[in-house]
Amino acid sequence: MLIKLLSLIALWITVASSASMSMRYCKVSGYLLENQIYFTGSKMVNEYHLVLCIDGKFIYDTRFPSIPWGTKFAFGDRTLAIARSKRYATRKKPIFPPYAPVAGIFDVGGPDPIPLAPLQSRPITEYWIEIKSSRLIAHVPILETPIISSDNWYANFSVTESYSYSPEVKPVVTAT
Description:
Layout: H1 2-18, H2 21-25, E1 30-40, E2 43-54, E3 57-64, E4 72-75, E5 78-84, E6 101-107, E7 114-121, E8 128-132, E9 135-144
Antiparallel strand pairs: 1-2, 1-9, 2-3, 4-5, 5-6, 6-7, 7-9, 8-9
């Protein structure tokens, strides 16, 4: 039984590794924030990637050692920021209920932030494994641009995550 399971996993990894990057990342237009985990020698590497796709084509990817919540970062020729909503801004780990409206991405290269896209959580169960240079890389989705959103999705966001919480009212997020 174990051998059959391992054979199926090996077959799935082989098929997944032969698909193009655009097919896996770029099912729709928008941003994808994911966690990539792999080993270099005996050291585990844990990094975050922000990927942009337009019309199903891979455009740009940048990586971070940690998610730059509420801070500026370079993304191609733009300066962007990812801000979480007040409800999720105090969260230490980037684990959210599936399909929850968690964050937004903003162009902060000018005097005023320009809202670019809302970001919703994606189920971590939709991970995939890539074989690249004899290395297994686990891609774990965190946030993505939703297909449909409201026009004023950014109304309650602070780009720098400068929210104030009263002592008696703190954000409560339960595990699902």
